[in-house]
Write a structure and sequence with these properties.
The protein is mainly β. 15% of the residues lie in helices and 52% in strands. The chain is built from 3 helices and 11 strands; from the N terminus they run βββββαβββαβαββ. It has helices at 47-52, 100-108, 120-125, and strands at residues 3-7, 9-13, 18-27, 30-36, 44-46, 58-65, 71-84, 87-97, 116-118, 129-131, 136-140. The longest helix is centred in the last third of the chain and has 9 residues, at 100-108.
Length: 141
């Protein structure tokens, strides 16, 4: 198995009390910013971002379990090609969420906006290791 390293940027909010780890990725040829989120069970993209993508993305509705009782229905999209460093993941489903409130806050403090979250589904599948000191995430491919 090969290990690839993808650099991330640490975005500090509120004097290091809150941080986000942001990686660059691509959907097709379109660059996107994804927050590494080990607490997210599924990777997601913002509603706003998918409107700007050039590749055809198919939308479907799936049932997704949430915390608490019952099922939540969320829209999902099938992304034909997600590139993270040298890794290409084909035909992968992403949740669609509104990230307007997060991006409004980031914009208000002069930070670059985000397009989504890289969740535990992908992090686990590729046995991710996060090296905070070197600011890289290692994926096994």
């Amino acid at each position: 198995m090969n290990v690839i390293e993808i650099p991330f940027k640490v975005i500090e909010l509120e004097d290091q009390q809150n941080i986000m780890l942001v990686i660059k990725a691509f959907i097709g040829e379109c660059p996107i910013n994804l927050v590494i989120d080990t607490g997210a069970s599924h990777s997601c993209l913002s509603k706003q971002s998918i409107k700007n993508l050039t590749e055809k993305i198919t939308t479907k509705v799936d049932a997704v379990l949430g915390i608490g009782k019952g099922k939540l229905k969320n829209k999902m999209i099938n992304v034909p090609s997600l590139k993270i460093g040298n890794l290409e993941i084909k035909n992968y489903p992403f949740l669609i969420l509104s990230l307007t409130h997060i991006n409004n806050m980031l914009s208000s403090i002069g930070m670059e906006t985000i397009n989504g979250f890289l969740g535990s589904d992908i992090l686990y599948a590729y046995q991710a290791k996060i090296d905070y000191g070197c600011q890289v995430v290692q994926l096994q491919v």
